# Entry
Amino acid sequence: MPELAEVAYACSLWNKGLKKSIKQVEIKERARVFRDTDVRKFVEFLEGTTLLKSATHGKQMLFSFSNKIWIGIHLGMTGSLSIQEANYESKKHDVLIIRQTKQVLVFTDPRQFGRIRIHQGSQEPPWWSELPIGMLDDSFQVDFLINTILRHPRKPIKALLLDQRYFLGMGNWMADEVLWRSKLYPGQRSGKLSEQQIRILFEKILFVVNGAMGSVGKHGGDPPKGWLFHVRWKDGGICPKTGTILKREKIGGRTTCWSPSLQI
DNA sequence: ATACCTGTTTCCCG
DNA sequence: CCGGGAAACAGGTA
# Structure
């Protein structure tokens, strides 16, 4: 379930392993999650190091270890991190198992749309440091949104929100949530939005981002009551604002849920 | 058995 | 160049 806040929560699950050394590492070498990685020295690089720091940026995670080792993880569609007891035995879809004395850090991904990278060097890896600004950064301001829209005036606003060059961590349900709160039809061409609509959109992006980080990002689970999130998954859902029936259709290549009576 | 899926990438088309 | 649409990735679930 990995969008911005779920990724932040998943990352925090491994915090129990901070400052602790790595006793043993197991990987599923032939798993597709290693497609960008030279897997030969992966285990050798990691064993004996200490987990020093974790961070997320959008849907990306970065873990830094001693000996100048860095690992990047993207959860894809079905990836998840967990923390397990020391006697944990590997399960079918586990792709990375990091054993410490008192606990085990596990990355599992049945569909293998996720991704693991490893890097050795005193600087952060380029695939991390070259990421664009995130929605939680100070420099994410309404002007950034205005400029992004100016660059893609013909793109439906839903598709634009899902573009990871601009809205790092925005996923399908967050985009629907933002547009619902902004009273915008997801298929609306971005360039058609008025300045006032863009300002509201920006405000709602921050609301959803902060709301999700404060709930899902901190404790896992679901966003607060009253969010579209709770009714957007199946046909027949009712709009929490208007009480009318929600529509579900593919927009920008993804199943989109919106309230026709509310979103123009 | 069939359809669907909180993500990304690639390819083809207009 | 831009954007849509479909397919691919690979498995779980309804």
